[in-house]
């Protein structure tokens, strides 16, 4: 193998999927399929018998020999079999590579890698065979061919790449792996730098082990070759156009990467080991264990500066992967680096454990993003720390595939397997990876085989479960000592170089250790860069006071034209024409505005004010319920027209996402993490499906700010409402979000009016802080005749209302029964009450459930002097929905109001294991019963009232 100069060419993977690329033909047609492989590989063309015979004749004559037809036939037969032998090594040579530092994975040489398998006997091995320039030679004996192939494909690096369809990519990799003189070559300075990096990694772990005996650190011991390898990603990435690298990784080696790659001061880490905080005392938050924390920094190699960030993550392995990709996508957009031939300046690097890489489905979800419009980041470098064990689980019990990296073949990513005891080989793989990624814009995987010297964590005893492996490990020399000995034998360093490096670095660590005792953070890494000007609200209640979010009439009218004008060259669906006719009527009459139109007005007004809007989810372009129509599809050409893309100043994008919740929600969280100036929304097809992304909700959305001081303004749109559609199409599990609410961490709303939805979206961007916003969006209310708004509700000083009274309220002094609720059930209650002629019952909607609007509710209650009953009504079963959250909040508001009633009572469905019935008739019975209970009517009264 040889290291060659990086190519300057760039080719984007699947360019037709890029935002700026052409999208011809029907949307369901698979572009570029079936694949034009141009033959199975480069050998195919040269194996044509007629062509080969002519080449053999010419080559022989060139050497002064003439061959008769029989000799040509024999030589041609030799060549074909030799070519097949070469191809077999390209496909399967990695199976015989020297990858395991411990020597425990002893694999027999596959039979098809032997000359005998291809028909060459003992007498044939030294006969010259024509191979036409393959392997860099024209004629070679079988022994010479095998020697070259074993050196190229069966050394410390094994390459899997023949599953790649693209010929240029395969040739690129072959060119860097194959050849008679191919080798991994570093300069003397380069070798010394690699050794010094390995020593830093090794001694840092030893220092921590000595100073903090028995403390968990999830050390890199046994995998120290990763340190110089990651530095090569920074160095060679910077020289090929990378300005920023976003890293994501789990626990193992994280503290080492923070210190020796990211440049986090050692004294700060020592301070954290001693129980100190990395942030000032007045910042607040829960904090997190040190091996979950992130950082950001700049490093410079050869005069090129690269900004790096390591995203904080929880213990949920691989959960950080989509967050990194989303953040990278946002950064690429800032730098105008999205599109065909781009994706050059921001690089994602994900560092995985072998067991998690094979076992966690989120890994595949992220690979699935690699070629998709709206999610592609131009290739990610995946580095697998292959410990050959997962906690106590051996590989044969952890996966069904030979390698942990096999999942990557699904997107045709090349895979470099490498022996972790060879730092040069690992560094070479990273250099090759960055060159490949920058040229082809594709994912690539480095699978570094190593070992875990001290078990899962430093307090664990690994010999309980893997005694033979750990007998080997105890006797096995460290990476630094092996590499230092090798460099001494090569004459690169003298006998004292390694020890001098160790002594010097250890002395430095001692100084940092002493400095860590008195270290005190004076600044929180929080509101910098694009977050400048934003802040943490000083007082949650004051911060939640409503700000004016209405817009001017001129902007309103301009958006009306944009949202209802069909270009002459666009032929839209006849039903969409009727939808647009309805919207024109709304704008002309100034009334009847529905949910989807209010949403478009919110998006358009934010765009006009310079914000960006990104909406993604399953079927979000049209809308699951055919309500949104943000994308108009030409019925003749399937070209797409997006009206909001024509609003000046801002940037609008809407994507129908992959059928993923976990990965896509994580991606959008990462995008919002990087860009507070964009309204980023993720929409579930049905709110119930958000439970497929519960890890992202629990670990990032609800707790990210408290744990890591990372604010986020992501909006979740979760269709919710009981319409008899069954247990998976009713409940967005409102109760789960409310259980997560604490410390002013998120916002949870169940909104019933289009204008209020408009205002809450605008409020999300116009305030000086960002909090995740969870909205229980409606289904039936999308077209409900009572769920309409007027033009005036969008204009001027109008704003979001946390509490909304019913449409026909009695006078305050006449109210004896107050029904509090949220969401769709309010309209069922209003209709039944009005039909029954009740004049002493008021129905008040709590539009924002958290932070709970206790102050305005108490003010409203204080005016109801003759109140006799307070009821909380919900559609959800009693053990679901809002009841257990709001009960104490309502009680406190009643107390503060001095109300004659001290507590509310519950009216709703009985506790249930399933969130909803699947029987329409039973649904109606339950709905009538809960409405009757809330209003103090009989079920017969409710049915009769509805029939009126």
Uncertain segments are 1-30, 32-40
Strand order, main sheet: write it out.
3-9-10-8-7-4-6-5
Describe the largest sheet: 8 strands, mixed
**Gyration radius from CA atoms, angstroms:** 33 Å
Please identify the structural class as seen in this structure: alpha/beta
Percent helix: 25-40%
Proper CATH architecture of the largest domain: 3-Layer(aba) Sandwich
CATH topology description of the largest domain: Rossmann fold
CATH structural class of the largest domain: Alpha Beta
Domain module tally: 4
Number of strands: 24
Distance between the termini: 84 Å
Q: Quick one: CATH superfamily of the largest domain?
A: Thiamin diphosphate (ThDP)-binding fold, Pyr/PP domains
Function: E1 component of the 2-oxoglutarate dehydrogenase (OGDH) complex which catalyzes the decarboxylation of 2-oxoglutarate, the first step in the conversion of 2-oxoglutarate to succinyl-CoA and CO(2).
Keywords: Glycolysis, Oxidoreductase, Thiamine pyrophosphate
EC number: 1.2.4.2
Organism: Croceicoccus pelagius
Please tag this protein with its features.
948 residues; Helix Hairpins; Rossmann fold; 8-stranded mixed beta sheet; 39% helix; disordered N terminus
Overall description:
There is one protein chain. This protein is of the alpha/beta class and 948 residues long. The chain folds into four domains: 42-155, TPP helical domain (Helix Hairpins, Orthogonal Bundle); 188-520, Rossmann fold (3-Layer(aba) Sandwich); 549-794, Rossmann fold; 803-947, Rossmann fold (3-Layer(aba) Sandwich). Helix 28 packs across helix 29 (883-897). E1 component of the 2-oxoglutarate dehydrogenase (OGDH) complex which catalyzes the decarboxylation of 2-oxoglutarate, the first step in the conversion of 2-oxoglutarate to succinyl-CoA and CO(2). Its cofactor is thiamine diphosphate.
């Amino acid at each position: 193998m040889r290291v060659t100069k990086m190519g300057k060419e760039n080719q984007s993977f699947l360019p037709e999927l890029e935002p700026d690329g052409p999208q011809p033909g029907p949307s369901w047609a698979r572009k570029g399929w079936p694949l034009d492989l141009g033959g199975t590989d480069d050998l195919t063309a040269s194996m044509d018998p007629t062509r080969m015979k002519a080449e053999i004749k010419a080559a022989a004559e060139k050497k002064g020999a003439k061959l008769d037809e029989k000799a040509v036939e024999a030589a041609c037969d030799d060549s074909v079999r030799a070519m097949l032998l070469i191809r077999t090594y390209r496909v399967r040579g990695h199976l015989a590579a020297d990858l395991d530092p411990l020597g425990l994975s002893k694999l027999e040489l596959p039979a098809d890698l032997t000359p005998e398998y291809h028909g060459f006997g003992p007498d044939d091995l030294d006969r010259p065979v024509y191979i036409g320039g393959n392997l860099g030679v024209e004629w070679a004996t079988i022994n010479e061919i095998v020697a070259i192939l074993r050196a190229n494909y069966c050394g410390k690096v094994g390459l899997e790449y023949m599953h790649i369809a693209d010929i240029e990519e395969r040739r690129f990799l072959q060119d860097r792996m194959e050849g008679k003189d191919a080798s991994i070559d570093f300069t003397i300075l380069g070798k010394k730098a690699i050794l010094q990096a390995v020593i830093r990694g090794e001694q840092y772990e030893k220092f921590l082990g000595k100073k903090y005996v028995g403390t968990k650190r999830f050390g890199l011991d046994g995998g120290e070759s990763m340190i110089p390898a990651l530095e090569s990603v920074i160095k060679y990435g910077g020289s090929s156009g990378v300005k920023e690298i976003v890293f994501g990784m789990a626990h193992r080696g994280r503290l080492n990467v923070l210190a020796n790659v990211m440049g986090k001061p050692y004294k700060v880490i020592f301070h954290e080991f001693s129980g100190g905080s990395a942030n000032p005392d007045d910042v607040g938050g829960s904090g997190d264990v040190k091996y979950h924390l992130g950082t950001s920094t700049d490093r410079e190699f050869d005069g090129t500066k690269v900004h790096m960030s390591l995203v904080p993550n929880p213990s949920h392995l691989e959960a950080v992967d989509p967050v990194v990709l989303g953040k990278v996508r946002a950064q690429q957009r800032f730098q105008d680096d999205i599109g065909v031939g781009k994706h050059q300046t921001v690089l994602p690097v994900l560092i995985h454990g072998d067991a998690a890489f094979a076992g966690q489905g989120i890994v595949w979800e992220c690979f699935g993003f690699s070629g998709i419009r709206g999610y592609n980041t131009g290739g990610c470098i995946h580095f697998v720390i292959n410990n050959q064990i997962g906690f106590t689980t051996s590989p044969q019990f952890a996966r069904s595939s030979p390698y942990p990296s096999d999942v990557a073949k699904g997107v045709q990513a090349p895979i470099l397997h490498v022996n972790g005891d060879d730092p040069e080989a690992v560094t070479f793989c990273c250099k090759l990876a960055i060159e490949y990624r920058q040229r082809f814009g594709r994912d690539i995987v480095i699978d570094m085989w190593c070992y875990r010297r001290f078990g899962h964590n430093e307090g664990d005893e690994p010999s309980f479960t893997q005694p033979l492996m750990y007998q080997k490990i105890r006797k096995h020399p460290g990476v630094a000592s092996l590499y230092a000995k090798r460099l001494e034998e090569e004459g690169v360093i003298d006998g004292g170089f390694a020890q001098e490096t160790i002594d010097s670095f250890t002395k430095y660590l001692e100084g940092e250790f002493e400095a860590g005792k008195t270290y005190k953070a004076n600044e929180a890494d929080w509101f910098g860069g694009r977050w400048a000007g934003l802040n943490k609200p000083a007082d949650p209640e004051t911060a939640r006071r409503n700000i004016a979010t209405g817009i001017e009439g001129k902007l309103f009218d301009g958006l009306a034209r944009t949202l209802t004008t069909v270009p002459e060259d666009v032929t839209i669906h006849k039903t969409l024409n009727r939808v647009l006719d309805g919207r024109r009527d709304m704008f002309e009459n100034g009334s009847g505005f529905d949910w989807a139109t209010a949403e478009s007005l919110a998006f358009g007004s934010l765009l006009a004010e310079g914000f960006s809007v990104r909406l993604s989810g399953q079927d979000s372009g049209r809308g699951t319920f055919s309500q949104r129509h943000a994308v108009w599809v030409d019925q003749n050409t399937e070209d797409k027209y997006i009206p909001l893309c024509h609003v000046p100043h801002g940037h609008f994008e809407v994507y129908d996402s992959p059928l993923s919740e976990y990965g896509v929600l994580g991606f959008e969280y990462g995008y919002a993490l990087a860009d507070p100036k964009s309204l980023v929304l993720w929409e579930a097809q049905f709110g119930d499906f958000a439970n497929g992304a519960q890890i992202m909700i629990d670990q990032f959305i609800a707790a990210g700010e408290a744990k890591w001081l990372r604010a986020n303004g992501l909006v979740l749109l979760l269709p919710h409402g009981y319409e008899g559609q069954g247990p998976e199409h009713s409940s967005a599990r409102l109760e789960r979000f409310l259980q997560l609410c604490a410390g002013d961490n998120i916002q949870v709303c169940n909104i019933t009016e289009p204008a209020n939805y408009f205002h809450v979206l605008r409020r999300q961007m116009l305030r000086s802080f960002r909090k995740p916003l969870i909205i229980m969006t409606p289904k039936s209310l999308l077209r409900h005749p009572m769920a309409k708004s007027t033009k005036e509700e969008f204009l001027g000083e109008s704003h979001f209302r946390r509490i909304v009274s019913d449409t026909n309220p009695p006078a305050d002094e006449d109210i004896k029964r107050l029904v509090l609720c949220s969401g769709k059930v309010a309209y069922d209650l209003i209709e039944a009450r009005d039909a029954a002629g009740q004049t002493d019952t008021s129905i008040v909607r709590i539009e924002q459930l958290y932070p709970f609007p206790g102050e305005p509710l108490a003010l409203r209650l204080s005016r109801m002097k003759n109140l006799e009953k307070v009821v909380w009504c919900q559609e959800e079963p009693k053990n679901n929905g809002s009841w257990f959250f709001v009960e104490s909040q309502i009680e406190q508001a009643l107390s503060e109001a001095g109300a004659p009633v001290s507590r509310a009572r519950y009216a709703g469905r009985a506790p249930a294991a399933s969130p909803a019935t699947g029987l329409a008739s039973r649904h109606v019975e339950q709905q009538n019963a809960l409405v009757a209970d809330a209003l103090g009517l009989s079920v017969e009264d409710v049915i009769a009232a509805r029939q009126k």
